[in-house]
């Protein structure tokens, strides 16, 4: 098989191979569907390079879910595909976190609840987040918005090995904020079979439109898990930790048709589960680094989750039952990835602001020199999902492949069906 890949959509996920109907399997399957739907919705409205961690977004919203009530809880459940009972959702997400962060895992998850000192939050909610999500409870002075913002950003930066900086932009925090829930995820591992640096060379990458762009491509050969049909070529690049791998989906036609007609959770599971060890006489894959910021709130509103963001309609009395209504003021997300000859480093963080009103086959080649999709997966959930119609150029953005020097900002969207369990 011959594969030459250009850059793709990136999804930093812990992709759980859920082949059972257990609650944990349903949670993982919902996260896989969320990853693809979120990406496709974003791609439709914001064409270009995308990299995000659906598992980070899902964990953050799973922390909020036990505190939602009535129609607010129903909307979150429907849009996110959560289990019907919040306590069961919390328990199953807890199991997934334990699984992907087991001893020796290259994957790390850190959850934090930042609260305004002196505010009477519901103790049951704080207990649930501590028990199931292993959250650290930290007091913040939101009456000093800039000071609180800097403290949260610095903590996130530390939790992601200095890869996620300034998650909360200027003025993201204001004096009406009472709570901020944050999730940080970090991954770093070497390839099981590294690329040889001396083989890396400059070649053309062919974007969806425009002229070819000179890009640094890594090269490899040998036996790797792969799959091919009339629609897509799939390559799996294992990491040293055998539970993790990078999946590359290289469409055989144009990316837009592939997304609209073929990119579904069902097809993804079928393609990846059909991968078998096959000989590749040539694998050509770009070396790249990028980061991407997303306003998740806009995306979730598109999918019908509106009450949570409405100060007069939101019902989070399971978190705070004070004289003024608590609602979600922001959901911010940022992700980073660096893919090179040695391996992959990726990180992501999500922040949810809660405020009150006022605020033996024939050898193949794999030449990835046109848009493709890649997924970092664990044999179990979906951690990072990324898409790249790369490289893209604009007056303010250069080629992200340029000598592996540039970091970039990009963006995603989504729709889900609830799981009943």
From TrEMBL:
<dbReference type="GO" id="GO:0004867">
    <property type="term" value="F:serine-type endopeptidase inhibitor activity"/>
</dbReference>
<dbReference type="Pfam" id="PF00079">
    <property type="entry name" value="Serpin"/>
</dbReference>
<dbReference type="InterPro" id="IPR000215">
    <property type="entry name" value="Serpin_fam"/>
</dbReference>
<dbReference type="InterPro" id="IPR042185">
    <property type="entry name" value="Serpin_sf_2"/>
</dbReference>
<feature type="domain" description="Serpin">
    <location>
        <begin position="36"/>
        <end position="381"/>
    </location>
</feature>
<dbReference type="InterPro" id="IPR036186">
    <property type="entry name" value="Serpin_sf"/>
</dbReference>
<protein>
    <submittedName>
        <fullName>Serpin family protein</fullName>
    </submittedName>
</protein>
<comment type="similarity">
    <text>Belongs to the serpin family.</text>
</comment>
<dbReference type="GO" id="GO:0005615">
    <property type="term" value="C:extracellular space"/>
</dbReference>
<dbReference type="InterPro" id="IPR023796">
    <property type="entry name" value="Serpin_dom"/>
</dbReference>
<dbReference type="InterPro" id="IPR042178">
    <property type="entry name" value="Serpin_sf_1"/>
</dbReference>
<keyword id="KW-0732">Signal</keyword>
<feature type="signal peptide">
    <location>
        <begin position="1"/>
        <end position="22"/>
    </location>
</feature>
């Amino acid at each position: 098989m011959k594969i030459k890949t250009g850059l793709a959509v990136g999804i930093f996920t812990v992709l759980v191979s859920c082949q059972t109907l257990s609650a944990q399997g349903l949670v993982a399957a919902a996260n896989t569907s969320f990853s693809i739907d979120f990406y496709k919705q974003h791609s439709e409205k914001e064409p270009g390079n995308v990299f995000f961690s659906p598992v980070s977004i899902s964990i953050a919203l799973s922390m909020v879910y036990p505190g939602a009530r009535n129609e607010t809880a129903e909307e979150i459940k429907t849009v996110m595909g959560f289990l019907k009972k919040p306590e069961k959702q919390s328990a199953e997400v807890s199991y997934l976190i334990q699984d992907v962060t087991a001893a020796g895992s290259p994957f790390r998850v850190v959850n934090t609840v930042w609260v305004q000192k002196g505010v009477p939050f519901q103790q049951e909610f704080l207990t649930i987040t501590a028990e199931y999500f292993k959250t650290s409870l930290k007091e913040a002075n939101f009456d000093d918005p800039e000071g609180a913002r800097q403290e949260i950003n610095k903590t996130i930066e530390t939790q992601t090995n200095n890869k996620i900086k300034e998650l909360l932009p200027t003025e993201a925090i204001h004096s009406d904020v009472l709570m901020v829930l944050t999730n940080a995820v970090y991954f770093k591992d070497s390839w099981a079979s590294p690329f040889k640096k001396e083989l890396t060379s400059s070649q053309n990458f062919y974007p969806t439109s425009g002229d070819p762009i000179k890009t640094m491509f890594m090269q490899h050969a040998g036996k790797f898990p792969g799959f091919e049909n009339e629609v897509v070529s799939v390559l799996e690049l294992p990491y040293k930790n055998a539970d993790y791998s990078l999946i590359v989906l290289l469409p055989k036609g144009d990316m837009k048709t592939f997304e609209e007609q073929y990119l579904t959770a069902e097809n993804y599971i079928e393609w990846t589960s059909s991968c078998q060890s096959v000989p590749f006489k040539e694998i050509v894959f770009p070396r790249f680094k990028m980061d991407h910021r997303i306003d998740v709130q806009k995306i979730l509103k598109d999918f019908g989750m509106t009450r949570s963001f409405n100060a007069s309609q939101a019902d989070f009395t399971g978190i705070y039952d004070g004289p003024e209504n608590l609602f979600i003021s922001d959901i911010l997300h940022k992700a980073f990835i660096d893919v090179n000859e040695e391996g992959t480093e990726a990180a992501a963080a999500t922040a949810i602001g809660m405020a009150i009103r006022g605020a033996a086959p024939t050898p193949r080649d794999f030449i990835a020199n046109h848009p493709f999709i890649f997924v970092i997966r664990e044999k179990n959930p979906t951690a990072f999902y990324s898409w790249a119609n790369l490289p893209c150029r604009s007056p303010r953005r250069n080629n992200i492949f340029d000598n592996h020097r540039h970091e970039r900002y990009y963006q995603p969207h989504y729709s889900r069906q609830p799981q009943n369990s």
